[in-house]
Amino acid sequence: MKITANELSQATAVILEGLGETPENASLAADSMVYADMCGIVTHGTHLLNNISKRAKVGLLDLPTNAKIIKDETATAIIDGGNGLGFVAGRMAMETAVKKAEKYGAGCVLIRATNNLGALGYYTNIAVQRGMIGVAACNANAAMAPWGAREPFLGTNPISIGIPAGNESPIILDMASTLVARGKIRKASREKKQIPEGWALDKNGVPTTDPDEALKGSLLPIGGPKGSGLAIVVDVISGILSGSKYGSDILSFHSPDGPTGVGGVCIALDISRFMDLDTFTEKLDGYVRNMKSLEKAQGHSTIYMPGEIENIKLTESREKGIDLDNAALDRINTLLETVGSDMRLGG
């Protein structure tokens, strides 16, 4: 069923307010989750409401979110997420980084003691919309074994880099350091589907196509030791440097084991401090067009830039609505009923 972004945002905010969040924070969090759904990144969208509800009800998520800056220097800051919604802490971090970049040319903000941040491209896009380059990364609970090991120690530890363009779509790289985000493994498990070979190992370190065995084992890094190395440096900056949890100490957002302790980093670079913004975006447009004009490899009709497919989906969602299946609609409507709201989607 097609649901408008406004309808989905309203329902999401109502649920979050019903769970104890403030109206302002609920709106910010809803914006991030609905953005993910609009881009087709459903594992990072309103699907997370179920886990948010479960954690809030057992006291493992502190609502309302009390994210605050605990250290503020010229171009740097540290935010304590207060074990609240990661979307709120992430938005605060990138907005703060952008403000610092406007003043100093660059801003770097670390986040500690927060939870699932959702789609990192949402935060880098905030910088892009302000004519800046944005960088965001965060750690996560152990899901990947370091290269050469079979025991999970590192999270999927994603990273996103956003770069503004002129007439072309902005470049929004948003990727896990594993071959696939763990949410896709969980989705395959829920749907009782096999996963492709090469995504994961079972608990004995043997390749598997069974998502349930993969969840007990380890995801594989992109590019072997390169992906493992990327996850390590993201963990060090997001976890150790921020004063948050890191390595195997981070807990899963999908299990009621305790506060997750996720850490993150948001960076903004003011392009105008290095080059006139219009000149830069004009050059980037030409760069993209030149790349897209290259001869296509067999089986390919289009050369896509990072984030371009998601941007196409985002535009379609704005124009035609967001695709939600019956299971997703039922989950949201059940949560609306649980928090005492009369609102229903798809009715």
The helix content is: 40-55%
Helix/strand-derived category reads: alpha+beta
Q: In total, how many beta strands?
A: 12
Please list the strands of the largest sheet in the order they lie side by side.
2-3-4-11-5-6-7
Task: State the low-pLDDT regions, or none.
Answer: none
| Total count of helical runs of at least 4 residues | 11
How much beta, percentage-wise?
15-25%
Average pLDDT over all residues: 95
> Gap between N and C termini, in Å?
11 Å
The main pleated sheet reads as:
7 strands, mixed
* Order of helical and strand elements: EHHHEEHEHEEEHEEHEHEHHEH
Evaluate the radius of gyration. Answer: 20 Å
> Based on CA inertia axes, which overall geometry fits?
globular
Structure description:
- There is one protein chain.
- With 347 residues, this protein is α+β, with helices and mostly antiparallel strands.
- The chain has helices at 5-18, 23-38, 49-57, 86-104, 121-128, 182-190, 211-216, 225-241, 277-292, 308-320, 326-338; strands spanning 2-3, 68-72, 76-80, 106-114, 132-138, 159-163, 171-175, 200-201, 207-208, 218-219, 262-270, 322-323.
- The strands form 3 sheets. The chain has a 7-stranded mixed sheet, with helices on both faces.
- α4 links the parallel β3 and β4.
- It is globular and about 50 Å long.
- The N and C termini lie close together (11 Å).
Task: Please summarize what this structure is.
With 347 residues, the chain is of the alpha+beta class. It has helices at residues 5-18, 23-38, 49-57, 86-104, 121-128, 182-190, 211-216, 225-241, 277-292, 308-320, 326-338, and strands spanning 2-3, 68-72, 76-80, 106-114, 132-138, 159-163, 171-175, 200-201, 207-208, 218-219, 262-270, 322-323. It is 40% helix and 16% strand.
